[in-house]
User: Which sequence fits this backbone?
C-alpha cells in the first residue's frame, strides 16, 4: 500500500470542472482506496509566468498501485482533460504530479529515472504545493524542516 501526495493544477477553461472530474475518476479507479483533497487555492503561475492564474490543490491518495502505474493513471486523466504539452510549465487544462510518496512502512519512496522523480524535485520550492499539503498533513517534514517553517521562509523570500 502506498500513500501518494499529488499536486493538482489547472489554468485553462473550466478549471474547477477539470479538477473535479479527475478527482471523481480517481475515486472510482480499481486499486485506489481513498482520495482526500485539500481546499482549492488560486495561485499565480510559477516558472513561466505569462499565463492565467491557476487553481491548485493537493490530493492524498491511498493505493496499491506501484508508482509508475500511478503515474500512468494520472497521465491518462490529463489526456482525458485534453492537456497539451506545448510550453514547459505553460498553460494547461490539468496538471497532476506525484510530489511525494510513502510506502506502507512510512518510508519515503525514492525514484530517479527518466519518467519519474520522487520526491518531486521542485515540491519543496513551491508555495502552491506546500500550502495545500500543509492543510492535509500539518506535521509534514522534509529533510529535517517542518512544512510551516518552509512556507514561512518561501513567503519571506518571494
Assistant:
Amino acid at each position: 500500500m502506498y500513500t501518494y501526495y499529488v499536486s493538482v493544477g489547472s489554468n485553462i477553461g473550466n478549471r474547477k470542472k477539470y479538477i473535479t472530474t479527475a478527482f471523481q475518476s480517481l475515486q472510482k479507479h480499481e486499486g485506489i482506496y481513498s482520495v482526500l483533497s485539500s481546499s482549492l487555492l488560486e495561485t499565480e503561475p510559477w516558472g513561466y509566468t505569462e499565463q492565467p492564474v491557476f487553481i491548485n490543490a493537493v490530493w492524498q491518495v491511498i493505493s496499491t498501485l506501484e508508482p509508475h502505474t500511478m503515474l500512468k493513471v494520472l497521465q491518462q486523466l490529463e489526456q482525458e482533460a485534453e492537456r497539451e504539452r506545448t510550453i514547459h510549465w505553460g498553460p494547461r487544462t490539468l496538471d497532476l504530479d506525484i510530489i511525494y510518496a510513502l510506502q506502507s512502512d512510512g518510508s519515503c519512496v525514492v525514484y530517479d529515472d527518466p519518467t519519474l522523480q520522487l520526491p518531486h524535485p521542485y515540491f519543496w520550492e513551491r508555495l502552491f504545493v506546500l500550502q495545500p499539503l500543509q492543510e492535509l498533513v500539518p506535521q509534514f517534514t522534509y529533510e529535517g524542516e517542518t512544512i510551516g517553517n518552509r512556507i514561512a521562509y518561501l513567503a519571506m523570500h518571494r
Notes: The two ends are 37 Å apart (CA to CA).
